[in-house]
Amino acid sequence: MICWPAGLDADRFLAEYWQRRALFFRAAFKPWICPITPEELAGLACEPDVESRLVEGNEASGWTLRDGPFEESDFLCAEDTGWTLLVQDVEKHLPGLHSVLAPFGFLPAWRIDDLMVSYAAPGGSVGPHVDAYDVFLLQGLGHRNWFLETKPSDLQYRTDSSLRVLRNFQAERRISMAPGDMLYLPPGVAHHGVGDEASMTLSIGFRAPTAGEIVSAAGEVLNRDQPELRYEDPGLTSRESRGGEIGRNALDRNARLLAQSWPPDPLIGDEAFGRVVTGSKPWLRAGRVLEACAPGQVEARLGAGHLLERAATGRFAWSSRDDQVLLFADGASWRLGAGSEALAARLCEASDLDQRLLPAAGEFRQRVLIVLADLLELGSLEWKENPTMDKELFDE
Questions:
Q1: Quick one: which of 177, 344, 374, 170 has its CA closest to 270?
Q2: Is the CB of residue 33 less than 8 Å from the CB of residue 100?
Q3: Per-residue confidence (pLDDT) for residue 299, from 0 to 100
Q4: What pLDDT sits at residue 393?
């Protein structure tokens, strides 16, 4: 669990610091043992389905970026100083590292994006920058200095770097972090990390979708639910034809069309938001087992004792409004029906799903079987081998 600074707890942190101001946690976790080694991190960076980056340089030379996957020789030949390796979504590739995220359960699960782990050689950094999302920086190994500018006055970037490095960073505060220390940064705080020794940092990042992403997803749902809403121009006259001009009458018709559909029904907005915040990266889905399975087959296999489990890279969430419950997984959505909140929660939170799910579904049984079949075909759910069943078969 998090060791909160004196006088603070989760509720007070959310009221006074979350999305407002930075907070340093001295010895946030004690005793502290880093759950990943530099060698394990480098090994991940060599895998083709892992998002990794290598940043080299400094303030004098500027910073350069290389994207993975890398070769072992890239690290064996690296300089002794001045470089940083960053690997995204580490907890999805090493499920044991989900334990690092567990203490942050006071925040909505769908809000957490990923665990990024970085290794920096002495003097390594990615340059001073600003993030558009909240982040907790947890010191894993070694000591590292963080320099902060709370409200950067100049958000222009350096032109000699392929990274978004601030041109005129003015540090106001220096924080020296040891293993087990943690720093919370809200969006917009400029920060620059650099150390005199090799170090590792575990970054817990949070999702912050843009309005444009949500509007785009709402458009997809609107097209599904109301495909008949389309631009029409009865009463069109030849006077509206003036080369390539879109005339005022056409623009007015468009305005009336949008007035019919926007803002959309609140449920459409809910569905769009859920799709965006559970969306997963294509390369994380690449290695999944996709299984076309009819609802009846799902029912039969569950009845025979087989178990379902969420994919290690899957993202699940649910919401409810009035008489409708929505389930989300990896950017897709399903409407379960009124009164199915407990069922939706179980689909999102249970480590394994077995035959007991169907009696619990009650009147939603058939709908749940359809959703389970969809989730298998999407790769968000997978069949799990049942050790008990395997033993019985072996004993026979």
A1: 344
A2: no
A3: 95
A4: 33
Q: Report the SS3 class of residue 332.
A: strand
Q: What integer pLDDT is reported at residue 394 of this predicted model? A: 30
Q: Which residue has the tokens 């992403």?
A: 213
pLDDT for residue 386: 62
Sheet holding 112-120, edge to edge: 23-25, 182-185, 135-141, 199-206, 112-120, 83-87, 52-58, 62-67
In this structure, which amino acid lies at residue 22? A
Nearest to 346 by CA among 308, 297, 382, 302: 308
Name the DSSP class of 95. Answer: G
3-state SS assignment for residue 189 = coil
Residues lower than pLDDT 50 in the chain: 389-396
The pTM score is: 0.90
- Distance, in Å, from the CA atom of 360 to the CA atom of 252, rounded to the nearest integer, reads 52
d(CA 325, CA 315): 17
CB 54 within 8 A of CB 118: no
